[in-house]
């Protein structure tokens, strides 16, 4: 799914570049100066990947709105936050991750993920209002990401890292036979990083048959190129007044706007605050 999102989004933005720059092939952009490319990028962001662009379409009379352009503008806007978060996680940029917390709050609130929305509210409350600097820095540095490789782009979320640890304990470096007691597993588990390092070293030195440690990345250029050509042919990034989407299942809800409405008008924040500040008894009654 992650791969599909990246390929589709790349095709959309290629089509936006070609549409905005009025070129027929993506390679023609090489002729543009850096300043021209910067200007075009700002125009693409403003017209094809922003809340401003969505609002501009929504502000028109209903019979003049282009619902197809609105849908794909909303896709571009939403997918940028997704790609930004994925990249920030990969390189360990917790500052960029923190900047995306309000966006995640709106999306969770609008998408009906109420427990995740509460988590985002609690995180914002702690980072912006309650926690001392030492706690804030500890949370950012030690509670979100881990890196077992030492490489700049080797970060991953702690929950994913824990899943990989479980796979190593239960599958890749599992203990077998009558000696595989819980005490032995507890004893050998801390050595798994060393065992993994020795295995990788031996595989590299002797060029033995190995099991892949990650999924290979297929060649994407053909797929992205075909998608881009189809988007250009369909004209989905051009404004066509009155263009409709006739099938309801093809209409994606605007979860970000729904989240803003949910938080403000439906009282999500008020309910969270009431629950959070409700006086609770601290005593224990054993009778």
Automatic annotation (TrEMBL):
Residue ranges of domain DUF6589 in the record: 2-215
The highest taxon in the source lineage is Eukaryota
Q: Which InterPro entries match?
A: DUF6589 (IPR046496)
One Pfam family it belongs to:
DUF6589
Q: What's the protein name?
A: DUF6589 domain-containing protein
